[in-house]
C-alpha cells in the first residue's frame, strides 16, 4: 500500500466513523448517553481540581484529562458526521 493509498484509507475510515457517530448519538438514547458523558467528564473541567479543591497529583490530572479527551473525540466525530451528512444533502 502506498502512502497515498494509506492516507485515503485513513480518511475514508475516519469519515465512516464520523457518520456512524452522528447516527448513533443522533438518537434519543445516544443524546442521553452523550449528555451524561459530557456532564461526568466535561472537556472544560479543571484538571488539577478534585471535588472543588486543588489537587496537585499529576497522575490524577492526567487521568481526568484522558477522560475529557475521549468526550472531545466523540463530540468531534459527531460534529464531523453531521457536517458531512448535511453537505451531501445540499
Please describe the topology of this protein:
Elements (H helix, E strand, L loop, with lengths): L2 H23 L2 H13 L8 E2 L2 E2 L3 H31 L2
Antiparallel strand pairs: 1-2
Helix pairs in contact: 1-3
Provide an overview of this structure:
This protein has 90 residues and is mainly α. The protein has one domain. The chain contains three helices and two strands; from the N terminus they run H-H-E-E-H. It has helices spanning 3-25, 28-40, 58-88, and strands at residues 49-50, 53-54. Strands 1-2 form a two-stranded antiparallel sheet. Strand 1 and strand 2 form a beta hairpin. Helix 1 (3-25) packs across helix 3 (58-88). The longest helix is centred in the last third of the chain and has 31 residues, at 58-88.
Overall shape: flat
Helical run tally = 3
Rg measurement, Å: 17 Å
For the largest beta-sheet, the strand count, sense and barrel status come to: 2 strands, antiparallel
How much β-strand is present in the residues?
under 5%
Number of strands: 2
N- to C-terminal distance: 34 Å
Rounded average pLDDT:
89
Quickly give the structural class. Answer: mainly alpha
How many structural units, i.e. domains? 1
| Cross-sheet strand order for the largest sheet | 1-2
Low-confidence region ranges: none
Order of helices and strands: HHEEH
Assign a percent range to the helix content: over 70%
List keywords for this structure.
mainly alpha, two-stranded antiparallel ribbon, 74% helix, 3 helices
Please provide a brief summary of the model:
This protein is mostly helical.
Amino acid at each position: 500500500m502506498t502512502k497515498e493509498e494509506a492516507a485515503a484509507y485513513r480518511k475514508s475510515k475516519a469519515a465512516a466513523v464520523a457518520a456512524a457517530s452522528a447516527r448513533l448519538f443522533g438518537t434519543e438514547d445516544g443524546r442521553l448517553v452523550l449528555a451524561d458523558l459530557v456532564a461526568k467528564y466535561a472537556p472544560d473541567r479543571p484538571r488539577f481540581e478534585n471535588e472543588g479543591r486543588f489537587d496537585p497529583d499529576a497522575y490524577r490530572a492526567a487521568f481526568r484529562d484522558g477522560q475529557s479527551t475521549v468526550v472531545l473525540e466523540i463530540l468531534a466525530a459527531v460534529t464531523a458526521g453531521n457536517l458531512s451528512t448535511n453537505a451531501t444533502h445540499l
